[in-house]
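To assess whether ligand presence alters the predicted conformation, the chain was also submitted together with flavin-adenine dinucleotide. Input:
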Amino acid sequence: MASEYHYDLVVVGGGPAGSSAAFEASKNGIKVALIEKEEIIAQSVRTSGVTWIQNIKEFGIPDDCYNPIKNYSFCSPNNEVTISDTVSHAAVLDVRKTYRWLAEQAKNEGVDIFLKTSIKNAIKNKEGDIIGVSGTSKDGEIIFYAKIIIDATGFSSTISKDMGFVTQWERFGAGAEYEVSAENVDSETWWLMVGQKYSPSGYAWIFPVGRNIVRIGVGIGKPESSIDPTERLKELMDSKIGPIKKLGKITPIEFHYGLIPNDGLSRKTVYNNLILVGDSAGQANPLVLEGIRYAIKYGRVAGKVAATAIKSGITNESALYPYEETWKKEIQGKIKSAGKVQDRWIGLTDEEWDKELEIIKELRPEEFLDFIKAEFGLANMIKLATHHPKLAVRQLFNLVKSKNKGIT
Ligand SMILES: Cc1cc2nc3c(=O)[nH]c(=O)nc-3n(C[C@H](O)[C@H](O)[C@H](O)COP(=O)(O)OP(=O)(O)OC[C@H]3O[C@@H](n4cnc5c(N)ncnc54)[C@H](O)[C@@H]3O)c2cc1C
């Protein structure tokens, strides 16, 4: 006999999107369950954890959850550039600490967290709308009924797939990473490594986590390349090319692997009684494939919209639309533009990458950060596209400007 639970809102997936949605919904006065298939929150790490200090502060994430970065180094086969800032604007998160803090915040707001509970199916009413989910827990079959379900299952989009609303992402990034201790670590400097030998359709990275620990990883764009990121990472670490050599002796601590959608914001994200958020909604910046800040931000928006709808007694698609309207207004144009730059980058040869670094060299730290974050403000883009002293820089920003009529 299956155990049966009834909630106002059920959030499936205890990643940053799910915990943030559950937190905000419960804060707004409804009864919420957060369901996670792993034994503890963030048991497996599937991300490198780079994000931005401004967002960290905005979310209230504690200072001991991240390592600040202020030097941004790039290398291509025959070029190298470091953009140095006076203060840190980027950060590498302690992923477990941060994700557990987010879930703890939800719990403190009254959310019931179900761990080791894997959801397999959506339950529909006779109109075909979702009214619950079912799966297995450590005690056997389990069923949750709710007025709204949030699909925060990440890349797998389990609920939306079972509803028949989405299919597997066609374009995505596959990433493999080792967290290692190293002999020589500059904890304020990250490295992005581009060109065929690092990744034929992506990039490799060194992200310092603090003390003598760094994450060395490789991301490969699929279906553009068939290379296995784990194999390529092993090759890079064995041959110690480029900045990996500077790390000296390396001792692996832990291996991470994950997939991230790269199909742009192509999905509809609200249906009757259902919201998709975070990776299940494709909310990722394609330039560096980062999605944590969007997962937290739009997780909170989803939670708030869900609570308002539930309290009003109407939970259909139109009642949930304010969530989709918010993210569309804020990031749709920017992500479209970032996709154009990504398309340009994916096609570059090694020689072209060497030249692209010459353009990046020309950017001031704040220009570089806006660019890499896909924070393409129209005024700023026009300024760079028309007034920058270097023609190549003007050309790069013209690409962003001309392809992006929707930016604000
Ligand atoms: C290699 C790699 C590196 C990355 N690096 C960065 C980076 O540096 N910075 C950045 O911002 N972003 C990065 N990302 C992207 C980032 O990790 C995601 O955008 C972010 O994790 C999305 O959060 P989410 O909550 O939507 O999904 P997830 O973090 O994937 O969380 C989903 C949760 O749902 C649970 N779950 C899944 N299915 C079920 C089910 N059926 N039942 C119950 N629970 C379920 C999972 O166990 C998981 O805990 C990277 C991604 C990869 C793959």
